């Protein structure tokens, strides 16, 4: 039978290679779960769906934290022939209601608190629910091969479904950083193309232990914790619950990963956390802050992060200074990535150190990337423009939104403004909807942010556009003072840096201090919330 066997491409390949006993996941609740046990649990899950009357091709909403049971729900759905729709349990009810109405699931898998589960089931209109506790029990380290879901879910299970090219096999929702989450439809052939393309650009190894702070419910996390490591036969380290500097450091200390996939904001927090501690506290696992401070260049091989060989950064732009700190303190090999849910995973990737630190590098294998103007025409090297990507990983489209303008000119406009060099490498400028028109000049927020970050006492910042009392666009900078910094002193420092570092037309009209920047569930700055806040203050 023709078509793509997704389960076979992931776990089946490892069993065929004799690596069934190799650990696929290190899970806080289930312990170490082998590829063989993961494969068997997916088979039982598929049988459970069949026994519940779920038809092949149905969409299944998966609202769950990262766990091996969540992976079973995905693989089991693919085995059965149904379409998994992983969604973050942190989405507010209004967004969750929108997602349910948008994707119309025929069954749900919920791993959330009972009160939230009740609301979600009401949203889903009585769609059958899979028992998450039973799935977890099925993959516990001490479970026998036929336990927990019952013998009736083991016998007479056909082989994994094969997915025809160009049909929905996965729906992922965007983070909602610019509005309501959109359901992005992916085919099985897009998944295999991504594994071939990105897998050759950033190859993983069976001996790798991969830790991703991005959640499975979003494109970057799904690729980093499910698709790429399983295809490589690697081991994935999972964090259940809150992902912060403490939980990440604890996971690193316990499991000693070789690959860390995270976002710039988390890397910055980890670096600050590590650099505030002296090495004896870090090595023995004491969460108390040490008295000494170690420079990044003094990284020792026995540090908790000393086993890392590779760091991946994606989700938002990684400033050059931060990229340098990551390489100095964590891993010499840092891959700076740009991706889009609409392209399944990463489309541009560059090894920092192979050029300008923080540059995006080249298009991954199998992807064609060009820079285009507002009319869709390619622009010459050295000219800013809209990033357009084409290739087999580009989405089939949005759920319920045919003919969306993002999918045009034979590919996808990612919504990013970039600059291409003559050698074919790319630099990130900003998101296209963040580009500001100030005094007749197009200004990227990053140009202003880089000056603000260099000012004394600045912990973080973000620049957005707003309208002044005349309806003209102005820039507003939101600043988070560094720990212990005096707010008025920070404001003066930022103002002085802006006067010294920028021409008048680029300078923000306002400097506003916040305790923290608002972020989406993926950790990106929620620029739309800052713009709304600015609009409210100017009324």
TrEMBL record:
Range of residues in the leader sequence: none
Stretch list, region Disordered: 278-301
A GO MF term: acid-thiol ligase activity
Alphabetical keyword list: Ligase
Pfam families per record: AMP-binding (PF00501), AMP-binding_C (PF13193)
Keyword check for Nucleotide-binding: no
Annotated AMP-dependent synthetase/ligase domain residues: 16-398
A single BP term in Gene Ontology: secondary metabolite biosynthetic process
Matches recorded under PROSITE patterns: AMP_BINDING (PS00455)
Domain (AMP-binding enzyme C-terminal) ranges: 447-524
Record's protein name: Acyl-CoA synthetase (AMP-forming)/AMP-acid ligase II
Species: Actinacidiphila rubida
């Amino acid at each position: 039978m023709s078509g793509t066997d997704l389960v076979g491409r992931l776990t089946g390949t490892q069993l065929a290679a004799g690596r069934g006993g190799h650990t696929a996941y290190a899970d806080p609740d289930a312990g170490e779960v082998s590829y063989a046990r993961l494969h068997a649990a997916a088979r039982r899950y598929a049988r459970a769906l069949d026994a519940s009357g779920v038809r092949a091709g149905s969409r299944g909403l998966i609202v769950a934290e990262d766990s091996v049971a969540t992976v079973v729900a995905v693989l089991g759905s693919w085995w059965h022939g149904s379409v998994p729709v992983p969604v973050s349990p942190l989405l507010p009810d209004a967004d969750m209601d929108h997602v349910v109405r948008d994707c119309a699931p025929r069954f749900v898998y919920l791993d959330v608190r009972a009160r939230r589960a009740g609301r979600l089931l009401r949203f889903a209109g009585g769609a059958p629910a899979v028992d998450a506790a039973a799935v977890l029990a099925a993959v516990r380290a001490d479970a026998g091969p036929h336990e927990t879901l019952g013998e009736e879910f083991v016998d007479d299970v056909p082989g994994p479904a094969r997915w025809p090219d160009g049909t929905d096999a996965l729906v992922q929702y965007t983070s909602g950083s610019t509005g309501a989450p959109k359901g992005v439809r992916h085919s099985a052939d897009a998944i295999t193309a991504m594994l071939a393309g990105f897998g050759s650009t950033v190859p993983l190894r069976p001996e790798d232990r991969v830790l991703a702070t991005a959640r499975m419910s979003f494109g970057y996390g799904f690729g980093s914790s499910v698709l790429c490591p399983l295809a490589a036969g690697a081991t994935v380290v999972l964090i259940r619950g809150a992902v912060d500097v403490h939980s990440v450091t604890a996971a690193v200390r316990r499991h000693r990963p070789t690959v860390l996939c995270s976002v710039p904001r988390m890397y910055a927090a980890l670096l600050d956390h590590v650099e505030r501690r002296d090495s004896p506290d870090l090595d023995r696992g004491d969460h108390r802050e040490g008295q000494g401070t170690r420079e990044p260049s003094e990284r020792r091989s026995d540090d908790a992060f000393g086993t890392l060989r590779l760091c991946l950064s994606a989700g938002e732009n990684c400033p050059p200074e931060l990229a340098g700190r990551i390489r100095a303190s964590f891993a010499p090999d840092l891959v700076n990535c740009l991706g889009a849910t609409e392209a399944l995973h990463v489309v541009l990737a560059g090894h920092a150190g192979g050029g300008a630190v923080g540059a995006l590098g080249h298009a991954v294998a199998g992807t064609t990337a060009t820079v285009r103007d507002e009319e869709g025409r390619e622009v010459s090297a050295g000219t800013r423009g809209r990033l357009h990507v084409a290739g087999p990983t580009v989405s089939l489209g949005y759920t319920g939104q045919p003919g969306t303008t993002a999918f045009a000119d034979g590919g996808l406009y990612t919504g990013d403004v970039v600059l291409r060099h003559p050698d074919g490498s790319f630099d990130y400028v900003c998101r296209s909807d963040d580009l500001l028109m100030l005094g007749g000049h197009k200004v990227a927020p990053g140009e202003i942010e880089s000056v603000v970050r260099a000012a004394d006492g600045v912990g973080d910042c973000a620049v957005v556009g707003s309208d002044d009392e005349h309806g003209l666009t102005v820039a507003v900078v939101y600043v988070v003072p560094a720990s212990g910094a005096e707010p008025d002193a920070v404001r003066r420092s930022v103002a002085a840096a802006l006067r010294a570092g920028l021409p008048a037309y680029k300078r923000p009209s306002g400097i506003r201090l916040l305790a923290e920047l608002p972020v989406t569930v993926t950790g990106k700055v929620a620029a739309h919330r800052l713009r709304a806040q600015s609009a409210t203050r100017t009324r």
